[in-house]
Amino acid sequence: MSNNRVHGDLNNTEVMRKTNSLVPDPAYDGKTLAIPEAEDDAEIRAKYRPFITSPEVTSSDWIAKSELSTALKMAEADMEKTGGDRLKILVLYGSLRERSYSRLLAFECSRILWRLGADVRVYDPSGLPVKDDVQHQHPKVQELRELSKWSDGHVWVSPEQHGNLTAVFKNQIDWVPLSTGSVRPTQGRTLAIAQVSGGSQSFNTVNSLRILGRWMRMFAIPNQSSVPMAYTQFTDAQDPADHDAFVQAEGGSRLKPSGNRDRVVDVMEELFKYTLVMRQHFDLFGDRHSERKEREVKRLREIEVTKKEEKAGVEGNATSMITANTVNGIDVKGA
Description:
Layout: H1 42-48, H2 55-58, H3 69-82, E1 88-93, H4 101-115, E2 119-122, H5 139-150, E3 153-161, E4 164-165, H6 167-174, E5 190-196, H7 204-215, E6 219-220, E7 225-227, H8 243-248, H9 259-279, H10 282-285, H11 289-323, E8 326-327, E9 330-331
Helix pairs in contact: 3-9, 4-9
């Protein structure tokens, strides 16, 4: 028994599993695995990567200075093993305001994952129709569904309004079906969740997001982020025309130093690690006993239908031969 008891071991520390502390590698200080602009798809970059700032900012901002050596090592090893197949992360946010704090937080999350080498795409919910059973072919609906199918993992960031997630955010999830034919757009993906609040810290929205993720058959990582009084947590917007001030402000509208910002890094780092480990077993995690049974029943039913069709075809051919006057040009009726 350990003698290092904490308050009579009310926290049950004596049963904790022994872990090894990973030592940061200074060789990765400031290192980035982000897709170089010359190698990136220009159309995708313009449409789905609004979080990217100028090279001067990206190379010197707070994210570039964050200690992420373990995740960077993992990413390097994985890309070498897979021939450069980067993690694919879809980011969703839940507000259409001009200065949306959920969007600003989503951008910061994206920048962290971008530095780690992920292919990050942020979906803009503007123009997405309210969920109904008619507009399935709407371009914004199809775009969202295709992005989800493309992804390995998601980041969901919603404001808290009236004690829960916003309609803007929920509408996006409602448009993503559990299945599209034989494809499940969200099943087996990893998920990181975060919320912003106008008042004191709350966890109502992240709790609801976690329930949603489970319902969509996703693996929500244990960690989460809740940013209170979001209007106090971000710097002011900055005009890019004032170059020096823009670089000094890291592009403006950035998360201020705080424990909340550290937690955001924790969550994104955790999402990246979980997704990296789980992606190689994607098919395994999507394999279910009940679905195997359904596929077998369907297969047997199709075999039975095929047999009946073949039997009907043979009987039909026999009837035709009996009633025909000639077969292969020979008069079988003796006429």
